[in-house]
Amino acid sequence: MNRLLPLALLVISLGVGSAPASGAGSVVGTVAYRQRVALPPDAVVEVRLQDTTRADAAARTIGQAVIPTRGAQVPIPFRIDFDPAAIDPSHSYSVRATISVDGRLLFTSTAMYPVLTRGAGNEATIEVYMILPAGATAGPAAHPAAALENTFWKLVAIGDTPAVTLPEAREAGFTLHPGDHRLSGSGGCNRLLGSYEIGADTLRIVPGGASMMMCPEDLMLQESDFVGALKMATGYNIIGDTLELRNGARVLARFMAQHAR
Fold first, then answer.
1. Pick from 128, 125, 74, 75: nearest CA to 98
2. Which residues contact 209 (CB under 8 A, 6 or more apart)?
């Protein structure tokens, strides 16, 4: 993944037209990203079209495209076919994308992007972010690393599993406040509080109180895994805008710095 490419923005440009004669609908577009790196020849792009109407229920997948790149580079075209009868005009639909190799996550989108209904229009732009492998170091093109403290770190993956995102839900992530060594954040459902200690190359987090809301099962399971990762963390690594929480050499969770705009 060290062959350089021209700077590219990862865009999923969706065009939804009238259903073809066969009765099938489709969502089409392309996938690309910002980083100046090449995809490995065995990379796989996956794009999902999901019903994300209910904040209290898991997203339902309407259709997906799984595209082996076979050495092709971004932008990678895709097409998702679906049954128009499955689309309810009163519902909300979104797309998400990942790029992986042998089941190991390389890139993921960190938000849902609306399509098809509720005035979303026929095009959407989705940006995916690189999930750096354990032990990676910043290359010459990398920008300065984000600060560990006073930065909101948005959860993008637990291990190699992309974070669950639901409409109207809080963003899962945390901020470390250096004044009183306090942690604040959310597991995606409940607010989280805690404390932390930083050493020369160590980070230890002690989760404290949390609210007691109930959310969809997949979000609650992720929140439990997220809190577990905070408890298990013994160290960290920051490369550019990516933070890894680690237990020894094991990467527990990955986060993306969210900068004020």
1. 128
2. 193
Instruction: Tell me the C-alpha to C-alpha distance, in Å, between residue 134 and each of 1, 251, 261.
Output: 14, 6, 29
Give the other-Cβ count within 10 Å of 55's Cβ: 12
Per-residue pLDDT tens, the chain, 261 aa: give them: 444 333 333 443 333 333 343 457 888 888 888 777 888 999 999 999 989 887 666 778 999 999 999 999 988 888 899 899 999 999 998 898 999 998 888 888 877 788 988 888 667 777 888 876 544 444 444 456 788 999 999 998 898 788 877 666 678 999 999 999 999 999 988 999 999 999 877 999 998 877 778 888 888 888 999 999 999 999 998 877 888 899 988 889 989 888 654
Prior bond of 75 cis (ω within 30°): yes
pTM: 0.63
